[in-house]
Predict the structure.
Amino acid sequence: MAKDRNSYISIIKATSLFGGVKILQIIISIIRSKFIAVLLGPTGMGIAGLISSSTDIISSLTGFGLRTSGIREVSQAYSTGDDLRKNTTITVLRKLVLLTGITGTILTFLLSSHLSEWAFGNKDYSLAFKMVSIILLFNQINIGQMVLLQGTYRYKDIAKSTLYGSILGLILTVPLYYLWGIDGIVPAIIIASLIQLLLSWYYTRKISYKKINLTIKQSFSEGKVMLTLGIAIAATGFATQGTAYLVRVFISNYGSIADVGLYTAGIAIATTYVGLVLNAMSTDYSPRLASVANNGKDLIKVINKQAVLLVTTLAPLIILFIVFIKQVVIILYSNKFIEITGMIEWVMLGMFFRAISWSISFSFVARGDSRIFFLNELVANVYSISLSVIGYILFGLVGLGMAFLFSYTLYTIQMYLVAKKRFLFSFNADFRAIFIPQIILTFLCFVITKIVGYNAYRYIVGILFVTITLWISYKRLSKMIDIPLVIENIKNRITHK
């Protein structure tokens, strides 16, 4: 029990550390989204979303997964203490990100008219895509520099670079929206990318290394391992980005650009806050899984612990969003976005299953089952886009929310069955003890609030459900880490200081 408690405490500490920086980023993102929503409206948000998602899809294709594979290579080279290996690895990484960044920029520039037609149904935005093509170079070089910071364990510098970039990006881009309206979208995207690039360059100057003279051929030869692993990761990312892109393009062509903006805003609200928890936990979760990847029993224990903590943490948050979603939308955006409330309620239900499937899916990467991981994601993306198209045709924006729930429900079942076959995975009693009551309460709250609508009864019933889920989560969390003892330890530290 003491071992389990220490394990949970370690997870929570790591989540708190990396989550703190993410929270500040989210606050800045909320402010930016609020300005965009008020100054540009749903149409402006839709245009920005389509341009960004279009460049993201090309970036995922031409980036070769160097964001992930590069960290592995740099950290291994850095840990050996071998200067030649470190210098070679850093030199290769810098050359590869430069070459892949240039490739992405050229491809975007050449395909600008096609991208405009695919995204907007016309060539009106060809010039916009030509202008933003430069950010694929900026972003890829920035990725390389962030990889160097992470691979050499400079986490404080990563936090500073990211946070300062978000703040400066907000300060310098919002006036463009105010002065130029929709015409300020492209300059704002370019400036935000350039700011982040300059900041990461400033912090990577502290990393000492000696550049090795390598030809392009030698660079690809030395970076073969990095590229091989990266291609598998990139293929998965490309499929995921492609699905998101195709859904937005379909909405734009079948519905309207305004609906793209509403959909983008709704998904952002739902995924940002759950993503905060997942991103913060992934920093600690990934290496813990990797350390037990070859031991089936320990691997299953780690996955179950992560799933238990996720459900414990997210259940109250999900119900809070379902109950108060109308107020959240108005605060974060404006009254023009009220119609996405129904969609977000369904998406929040889907977040339960997204969290659980996320816990399992990490195991395939940890075990080196990159092929299984890719095939899983490919199959999931096929039925995800199919359900999204059907949902939007039948029920509009609400149908997209339903599709999100059904997609992640199927994905969770798929992950469970594949993991069960690959390494005999199963959910333990601890997981069932927290998941069953929390999912039942969440569905009950969802149904009742749908019936009563938006009136005083909704909030009375909602607060009751929130209180119950908080109590269940508190009892479970206290069992995991002994909350009274943790509070007492904190008091003692403060007193001694």
